[in-house]
Design brief:
This protein is an all-alpha fold. The protein has one domain. The protein has five helices and no strands. The longest helix has 14 residues. It is extended, with a radius of gyration of 16 Å. The two termini are 16 Å apart.
Length: 92
Amino acid sequence: METPNEMRTKIVDRATEDAEFRARLLGDPKGALEQELGVAIPASLSIEVHEESGTTAHLVLPPDSRLGESDLRAVAGGFVSSLGNARSVFNW
């Protein structure tokens, strides 16, 4: 299985070389990624694709690692998020 970095590189390279794929990725990120990577992306996972320009740069911060009250209750109750694996796949 590819690492998240390998998948990101594959997607960026494809979008750089293939204008049609780039347009699909910008217009329908989930559909384009599902087709390209052969994975099902949960409906509850949002994916946004941003195109940088000469005057715009994007900085992506990781989620806040501090647990909130609802997170603490979930951990105490033994809840496991079904998005954990999907988030790790798309954590780029």
